[in-house]
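DM from R.C. (forwarded with permission)

"hey, sorry to bug you on a friday — could you get me a structure for this? deadline for the figure draft is monday and I only need the backbone to look sensible"
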Amino acid sequence: MKTAIATVSISGDLAEKLAAIAAAGFDGVEIFENDFLAFDASPREVGQMVRDHGLEISLFQPFRDFEGMPEPQRTRAFERAERKFDLMGELGTDLVLICSNVSPLSLGGIDRAADDFRELGERAAKHGIKVGYEALAWGRHVSDHRDAWEIVRRADHPNVGLILDSFHTLARKIDPETIRSIPGDRIFFVQLADAPKIDMDLLYWSRHFRNMPGEGDLDVTGFMRAVAATGYDGVISLEIFNDQFRGGSAKPISVDGHRSLVYLMDQVKRQEPGIRIEVPEMPDRIAVSGIEFVEFAASEQEAADLGALLHTLGFARVGRHVSKKVDLWRQGEINIVLNTEQSGFAHSSYVTHGTNVCDIGLKVADARATVDRARALGAEPFEQPVGPGELNIPAIRGLGGGVMHFIDGKSELARVWEIEFVPVSDERKAEPADLLRIDHIAETMAFDEMLTWLLFYTSLFETVKTPMVDVVDPAGLVRSQAIENAEGSLRITLNGAENRKTLAGHFLTENFGSAVQHLAFETADIFATADALAINGFRPLVISPNYYDDLDARFGLDDAFLDRLKSHGVLYDRDEKGGEYFQLYSPFFGEGFFFEIIERRGGYAGYGAGNAPFRIAAQKRHLRVKGMPRG
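My reply, with the result:
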């Protein structure tokens, strides 16, 4: 499988784009004509620059408004094509994309278009050029790949073939299964793009909202399965028009693009038995049975302060590392690790971000297989010297500067706590709060990084993404989307901040980058837990009485039940099926980190998004950070 990406997909000038594309591992590049025209180098120099990066020019594009033109425009179209063929010869590429005509002057008729392409094929052959015809979703006469194929079929010229683009097919809701009847050798090139489902003008949707396969809502996998079934074995390329991508950093977006193609083709190979696809060998997406631990990097004093907060939450310090300044706090199935080492990765994380979640440990069936898949998808394995009494736990570098370790039950890794930690007796006796496990981890990042995080998790782990929701902060919107598995043993919420005035944006600024902003612990009885926390000296976030008045109006709650919620500072939500959700929040720790305690009843599957504005307003009232905007 050869991979490519169109230069229009990423930011920078042509030289910057090529460097990022090559570094990400692509084999080739589509030269978008405007990128070439804006660059100050000759065609030969550009071609050599591409080859110097170890790339090939897989496609030159686009050539517009060709077929079905009346005279004198028809003659002019052929003259334009001849000039492009000469240019392509200088560049060193032999395939040009011709998109279906959108000119109001164009004339319809499949035979007329086929005649034009037959003549163009003759001219192209003299230059050693092939032409590929693509149906634009908004083409004047041809907007369906089936019509484009019929034109190519009737043109009946070896230098004329079909170019397929997933966006143009799927945006018009054309069944991709119709591709299976097209001979694979007549498909000259395949372009891929995903997109969120938005009801808008097709051209505007295409030009501004495309994203990488797996990042949107279109069935790109189904499309590619149909293409693979034809026997097509050519280049698989990305053509992504996206305002965020054009304004972002070329390097990470290129890495995302390559990861998306590897992930896509791996899924196609698994879902389409018998199809031969060259893709790196890797295990299937990894099932996660739970969150084994969350590790904080901190100074001695901040670790003591965090330990005091954990104590009020009912945690006990149960272990000390055999050779490092690392403590283990536990309650139920929740393991919290506080690392105060003065060297190593955790210390570097602390120096950069202050007290933060530097490491997350996940329970998987096979830790080594997890790293193998991550490596195949472009993730970087993580290793540091193993000290006395330590296990070599498989790990990768995650996003936002953090690390992810993997624990399985098939090796000594299952005994990590008894091997690496010496039991200790916590002098402070906390009232058990009956916290059971980590319900979800909430990570905050800049909004334009959200798709990167989403692709990272969904390509590596056996998860699905929930629809994106808007969380209303008094200072602006925060976009939120959850990644979760069917069992609910892994839930991660991604929260994208667009400005620093929001609570999430402030956290990003003060933390110097993306990070875990809060942990949510599950309990089976929120009120019993709240009572135990009160005994421990826990002071919950104070919620405005106005919230509870509105809660009564929305749900018509029993007075006694409403008073109970109010007296404990518990927030409440109910879904359309009658499932209930209860939330209790800690005060802030540091620059905006906090804990949440939740209870789910009746199959409630959400995250209480409707309560977020009231929680945020309460947090801002209690936040006492100099210069923090209050919205």
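R.C.: lifesaver. Residues 314 and 432 are 5 Å apart (CA to CA).
me: no worries. The chain has 21 helices and 25 strands.
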